Amino acid sequence: MSPQKVLSNSMTRTNTSPENFDSSIGRPMRLSEIYIAAEHALKQTISNLGMLKSLSSSEEFEKKYLELTKGAADNYHHFWWKRHGVVLDGEIAAVAFKHGHFDQAAKSYEKVCALYNGEGWQDLLAEVLPILGECQNILNDQSWLLAILCAATFS
Predict the structure, then answer these.
(1) Residue 8: is its pLDDT beyond 80?
(2) CA-to-CA distance for 142 and 135, rounded, in angstroms?
(3) Does residue 151 contact residue 113 with C-beta atoms inside 8 Å?
(4) Cα(134)–Cα(155) distance, rounded to whole angstroms?
(5) Which of 5, 43, 69, 96 sits 20 to 30 Å CA-CA off 79?
(6) What whole-number distance in Å separates Cα of residue 147 and Cα of residue 155?
(7) Which ranges of the chain would DSSP assign to H, the alpha helix?
(8) DSSP designation for 57
(9) pLDDT by residue (tens digit) across 108-119?
């Protein structure tokens, strides 16, 4: 058998036109249909109602994120993995600061600064101190202002 004949036999063409094209794909979905289909798939996939609720809005997601992050940070501190816990404290502080909860943010940033200072991580300390100072300034807490200035001077 010649190569030309083998090629022509293995590559048969199917001539289709739009009228006789049978496809299960159908028309493209609209954005609203995609959203509804994704929401339905999510509800079918997640059986935990609390988790499903936390995915229902940005606010609910952030609440669940903070709850899980606080729990993880507490566990790290409890088992003496302070560095990991402080990283999560920094995340908690950033969210608290973003929402105007400056007292909570200041407490978390104080933990972060204490570890950074104790470890000698001056570059990281220099990044966090101004934010802590801003929290303390908003709270009108002058006692920390001196500590921040001293730490910044020695770094």
Answers:
(1) no
(2) 11
(3) yes
(4) 19
(5) 96
(6) 12
(7) 3-10, 31-45, 49-54, 58-78, 82-98, 102-119, 122-138, 143-154
(8) S
(9) 999 899 888 988
